[in-house]
Amino acid sequence: MVTDPISDYLTRLRNAIAAKHKVVEIPGSNLKKAMTQILMDQGFILNFKVIEDSKQGIIKIALKYNNKTKDSAIKNLTRISKPGLRKYSGVDTMPRVLNGLGIAIVSTSIGLITDKEARKQKVGGEILCYVD
Predict the structure, then answer these.
(1) Element (H or E) spanning 58, and its range?
(2) Which helix (H) or strand (E) element contains residue 125?
């Protein structure tokens, strides 16, 4: 049993990138699907596919690498809000990751969005993680 599914998701991605895997499989949930969709929209991963089975489903993520240097598009994944210490931010104190080069995934009342989108929509929320 996993007590923190978001940390598990980020750790599986981190480990697959460190091992230079092309594809990683992660147990599915609606939150993880939304996070994966944000990563794809922002260009951090190539593609993903949700495989429905009799249980919770599996998310297959195709990782993105630079052709010449073989470096991953994702340099750093950092969990911010943890089950023991939640981190919330209003729209006026929304963090900027790498001065706008990275993203923060924020859980708001309108769903999971990036920090840039949260500023545009003028909503705050729980900062789940930083991706750069």
Answers:
(1) strand 58-63
(2) strand 125-131
Q: 79 is written with which tokens?
A: 């969990």
Task: Give the separation between CA 129 and CA 4, rounded to whole angstroms.
Answer: 13
Q: Per-residue pLDDT tens for 63-92?
A: 999 988 889 999 999 999 999 999 999 999
58, 26 Cβ separation under 8 angstroms: yes
The position carrying tokens 């052709």 is: 67
Please state, in angstroms and rounded to a whole number, the distance separating the CA atoms of residues 22 and 47: 11
Which residues in 65-86 are b (16+ Cβ under 10 Å) and which e? beeeeeebbbeebebbbeeeee
Task: Say if CB 31 and CB 6 are below 8 A apart.
Answer: yes
Exposed / middle / buried, residue 13 (Cβ in 10 Å: 0-12, 13-18, 19+): buried
